[in-house]
Amino acid sequence: MHIGFLGLGNMGGPMARNLLKAGHQLSVFDLSPAALASLVEAGAQQAASPAAVAQAGVEVIISMLPAAAHVRQVYLGEDGLLSRVPANVLLIDCSTIDPMTAREVAAAAASKGNPMLDAPVSGGTGGAAAGTLTFMVGGKEADFRQAEPILAAMGKNIVHCGDSGNGQVAKVANNLLLGISMIGAAEAMSLGVALGMDAKVLAGVINSSSGRCWSSEIYNPFPEVVENSPASRGYSGGFGADLMLKDLGLASEAAKQTRQPIILGAVAQQLYQAFSLQGNGALDFSAIIKLYRQEH
Amino acid sequence: MHIGFLGLGNMGGPMARNLLKAGHQLSVFDLSPAALASLVEAGAQQAASPAAVAQAGVEVIISMLPAAAHVRQVYLGEDGLLSRVPANVLLIDCSTIDPMTAREVAAAAASKGNPMLDAPVSGGTGGAAAGTLTFMVGGKEADFRQAEPILAAMGKNIVHCGDSGNGQVAKVANNLLLGISMIGAAEAMSLGVALGMDAKVLAGVINSSSGRCWSSEIYNPFPEVVENSPASRGYSGGFGADLMLKDLGLASEAAKQTRQPIILGAVAQQLYQAFSLQGNGALDFSAIIKLYRQEH
Amino acid sequence: MHIGFLGLGNMGGPMARNLLKAGHQLSVFDLSPAALASLVEAGAQQAASPAAVAQAGVEVIISMLPAAAHVRQVYLGEDGLLSRVPANVLLIDCSTIDPMTAREVAAAAASKGNPMLDAPVSGGTGGAAAGTLTFMVGGKEADFRQAEPILAAMGKNIVHCGDSGNGQVAKVANNLLLGISMIGAAEAMSLGVALGMDAKVLAGVINSSSGRCWSSEIYNPFPEVVENSPASRGYSGGFGADLMLKDLGLASEAAKQTRQPIILGAVAQQLYQAFSLQGNGALDFSAIIKLYRQEH
Amino acid sequence: MHIGFLGLGNMGGPMARNLLKAGHQLSVFDLSPAALASLVEAGAQQAASPAAVAQAGVEVIISMLPAAAHVRQVYLGEDGLLSRVPANVLLIDCSTIDPMTAREVAAAAASKGNPMLDAPVSGGTGGAAAGTLTFMVGGKEADFRQAEPILAAMGKNIVHCGDSGNGQVAKVANNLLLGISMIGAAEAMSLGVALGMDAKVLAGVINSSSGRCWSSEIYNPFPEVVENSPASRGYSGGFGADLMLKDLGLASEAAKQTRQPIILGAVAQQLYQAFSLQGNGALDFSAIIKLYRQEH
């Protein structure tokens, strides 16, 4: 299949590579010449602009952009995708943005005759490279069925979350809970150890009891509890604290727009903000446990 | 085996019954004549005081009391257990109290020649009746080995958490994380639904992703997501909000004593306190989601 | 002086009247025919659009609009003020909006040759009617000097806060602290009374000590402590909880944009959001004390 | 007058000196030989124990101790004050402790025929030396009248707060609000400056508006805003962060006992706990603003 791909950064680059590996033909664009060159070397065709991608004869266009402002510009801007793309080309935006913008852009696409899906991912750069991402997809059932085999070349868990925007809703809600439970795990582990308990034994009890969560079991923030976790290698790699901060910012923005309180979520956002201010934004988000432990 | 049992309330009563069913001989005491009479009818021998239990020729004494003050009084008080119990009788306190008091009482017992375990439980009155409690046990390995078959008559998950007090540490840490993740689940579910997503679909996505926790998966606070959960039957039964408030109070007390911060935990405690003030303390603790949803 | 006035709502209406009383000639616009008619009856000239106000031969234009989106549209929109207003006409925006938008609009005005000030107010509808508002003004010193006598017809405290946008900065920072200290006063008063102290005596001690703040002294949230306060008349009138919620939302938005944490501020925002969800948004913002007291 | 004085530390030492200066005769006790020697050199008579002070023929006994445990031991312990002091000797405890303990000790004193006042102070070591402390006094009106001239030798603001324990209630409520409003001032100042405003100008606007509080006006946490404030001398001197942490701990303990929520207060306590964990407990409590600002 001939696919357009916009945004070839840390996530988009490896995702596009996996599409090439699966045998698809790709027309790609990115503002960075280096990112473009790297994909061209891997077999993609270079396009000069988003509009050029739209007119390259593609059947599907996938975008992976940093934030809502970029999505607006690429799709709705003057000379943007929607002003040039032929009707019926399927649009799939994998960026993580607020549900309202996702719905607004999808509605604009629909009015031009283009089906559109929001399909944010989880799994990080590791999952992008390995082709094991989770896609949370919002949009019409039929469009989801069309997209599924394409997304399957980049991920192993493709979930239909309902109508337009719901992929973003699922991601923002999941990461809100993730941000809270990670800090909760950090507080519980730090307190238990301060009270004299062995960290591994404590994690074992919690993980077989009602405190169990992904953050305590798979990604425990205490060093040496889970082998190969970021906590066991100095909090390098993984999902950066500043990315969690961005997602908690999306959650609080969505909460404000729907007049919905998120009390622990707001505190979690601010703790990540304070942590980032202290220069820790590039560490894995489980490093937030440093707020709770004296440096040794 | 001849066992002494002190405290025959909502938890202690059914626990003692399960010991009788397992064929043990019981000498029991409680301040409530009704509670005593009920156990006597089931086959236990009545004792007139904790001291009388201590002198009834028992090999093991189990206590299940409401709070640290009661534990102090029963064990350390004038004419208390420790003043009367023969050396080598194994003492097992199943009350949920702060780790410091647990360690202090165990040290006093040791100085009189009595091994002692702290063994708080989780699983609620349902688990007590069904004999499926989890016991988190602190104390010496050999004493734990001796207690294990006795506790197995009352529970199905008996975990050794390390030295004296660590059963309490494990419980306080687990329930701290549980209180936080339950409120996190309430915020995430409420926000997702306010943003237009179906509650069951959202829970499904979260439970196959990184937001997954016991509170989202087994005990989801949103109505009609998990069959037979308290949320699906009007928040009756289950683990009362006021009990969660008590456990978060133990966590913040332990945090203060160890000079350890617990930021989300402190907010969680206060939200449960505010919820209780509004008259909701007897509801299941997942009802905290009511703070986040307009009444319908 | 001939002045244009845009936005004749609960605040703008009485402000415009005070300009008429001071002898100024007014050309006014509002989307509401009733609001327009009421000002015309008081002596103002009706204009058909913001553009018409811009071209009515005015020396100064004042706007008082609900939110940043309206300010953008009125000033920057197609056929908006900036596309029609003659150079050198002084623009004064009294709306409460985020500092970034204020600076962006002022920069656009400057590029068309129009000096512009941001001049948000405090003092509420009472202050607007009585002409006793406080104006916090951002912009050039010379422009501030020109505006001062005009603003003096509507307020009694006109403060120059520095360059463009700083009027909004001052308001958002002040109201952030106000929102926090009001909840702090609510917690301190509720706790002190729950511990057995008389509310008036407690307020007296606090107000002569280091806990003293505007919220404890002038606007105490406990009933019957300050005569004629909203708390002493059922929390009617005053500064609505939903307006405080809006201002705390501006603070958290500004904090996010500058990557600055505001931990207590974020909790305060969410408590007002939860309070609003319970149907209390129209009450005075000091009614937040209801979260801390059982209804009697 | 012949007065007994127990506890000659950083606060009690200078307070006792001021009583000597006012012409009173003093019998003093402290566990530290150095502290005792220093007072003896200043003219006091040394006693060998609290009981010895009680029997030295004094008319009044004043105590200034670190925490509730010490107050219990000195007054209620074996061979404690109450077991030896003659009836009618007036007891004045200036320690900052929880209201419940204060009331319990006062009730025990009353049953032995001794009037007792709780009289915690504010004003710090500077106020203790200068004799300008504020005393918040709980107890009977007649006893307050008797104590007033004595306390006037050590302070300039002597406030009767009502019945027994209410001095402690007033202090705990005041310092709860102080802790919250200091962090609020830190957040508002940091945000305003991050948004581009001059710190002094911002403080000026806030202090003439509704955000005004003691923490913004007298004790602003931003450097160089208030001359001679701790913030303007590197946060040395003043009221230590660990003392504020202790007082917020008393507030949360009192809140728990009365089942009263204190949401911002709990967050404030934990922020001070985290700040202390980072090694900052000896700095003035206004240094909490460091959590909000990058080190320069």
UniProtKB/TrEMBL annotation, chains A, B, C, D:
Family matches, as Pfam families: NAD_binding_11, NAD_binding_2
Pathway annotation from the record: Amino-acid degradation; L-valine degradation
This protein's UniProt keywords: Branched-chain amino acid catabolism, NAD, Oxidoreductase
Reaction catalysis annotation: 3-hydroxy-2-methylpropanoate + NAD(+) = 2-methyl-3-oxopropanoate + NADH + H(+)
UniProt keyword Oxidoreductase, yes or no: yes
Domain 3-hydroxyisobutyrate dehydrogenase-like NAD-binding: 165-292
EC code: 1.1.1.31
Family as reported in the entry's similarity comment: Belongs to the HIBADH-related family.
Protein name: 3-hydroxyisobutyrate dehydrogenase
